[in-house]
Amino acid sequence: MSLTADLERGVVRFGTLTVGAGPVVVIGGAGADARWINLRENHGRVLASESVAAVRAGWRGPVLVEPFSAADLPEIAANAVGAVVGAAWMQDFQLVRAVARLGLPVLVQRAPSATLEEWLAVADYCVAEGNDRVVLCESGSRTHLGGVTLDLALMRAARERSGRPVLADLGGDPGLAAAAIAAGADGLLLPPGSTEREALAVHEAVKIVGAVTRREDPGSLPAARGAIDRVDAALALLLERRAELAGVIQRLKPVGGFAGRDMDRERRLVADMARRAPGLGEDRLASIMNAVIEAGLHLAEERMAADRGRARAE
Ligand SMILES: O=C(O)C(=O)C[C@]1(C(=O)O)C=C[C@@H](O)C=C1
């Protein structure tokens, strides 16, 4: 059994940014892999060239741009690595076709009430214009509460049906990053207005949840090191949590610490782990877990000694 339903994914490259293979990418917000600009926000009153230049002034990485109208397309062709088909006009097929003809990869947001078929049809329009470099971005449905609800099941279905990379637009709730990654999102969209704290939490989810749920097949040394760094981040979190729990156990046992060591229990937990780590196997896991368990016992004994010291001083 695997958490990662190993779905086949296509890969789309926005300039230097690869979506669909490798880590989950973050578009927008502090520390992002790419920025995006929505020219509709200013109702077309600010020139595309000015908006792009403003972002470009502080950012050398990939920029994706959503046009306000066809007049913006030359600027996008010249200065962006990708075009965004916005949720608000996903079915403006004239503009969709013109965007697809730019030859840049296209990010297609889902309109709030669009069905899966309607959404996928937009990708087909791009393909009909000779552009197969399409990623699909779930942007949420309007709900009775007046807000927007991300439909992660629909996002999964879009990936299964189309084989294209899928993104989740976290505009309404950056707290959904972990859920979106676990549901198979290849990337996350953050609104430019998101706080640094929100962006940090999203990047943490990319590392930790991505490490657990996403199998990577890196083809270069930096990519492989990036992937191993994410796994180490998840390991560190789990090792710390494990040490805390081992400490709780030492306090609950009649005889805690090294004096109360239970080798039978250790052998059983190693055997259980070996089922999930058959490559490492029981012998190697036994020495890894010995080090982990001893570190936990040392920490627990240190803390218990400190507590006793404090109690004596009071
Ligand atoms: O389960 C226990 O009895 C523990 O003390 C916890 C733990 C562990 O870290 O997993 C630590 C020492 C024992 O030898 C066995 C297991």
From TrEMBL:
Pfam families linked to this entry: CM_2 (PF01817), DAHP_synth_1 (PF00793)
Gene3D superfamilies: Aldolase class I, Chorismate mutase
Entries under InterPro entries matching the protein: Aldolase_TIM (IPR013785), Chorismate_II_sf (IPR036263), Class-I_DAHP_synthase (IPR052899), CM_dom_sf (IPR036979), CM_II_prokaryot (IPR002701), DAHP1/KDSA (IPR006218)
GO molecular function: chorismate mutase activity; transferase activity
Protein's UniProt name: Chorismate mutase
Chorismate mutase domain segment(s): 215-304
EC number of the protein: 5.4.99.5
Keywords: Isomerase, Transferase
